[in-house]
Amino acid sequence: MSVYSIVVGSSSSVCVSLSERLKLGPSLSSSEPFFNPENIIRFSKRNGGCGVVAKAMMNKPIFNTTFEPFEEVKKELLVIPTELHASLARQNYTDQSEAALNAQINVEYNVSYVYHAMYAYFDRDNVALKGLAKFFKDASMEERQHAEMMMEYQNKRGGKVQLLSMIMPFSEFDHAEKGDALYAMELALSLERMNNEKLLSLHRLASENNDAQFVDLLESHFLVDQVEDIKKISEYVAQLRRMGKGHGVWHFDQMLLNGGVAA
Question: The whole model's pTM is what?
Answer without folding.
Answer: 0.69
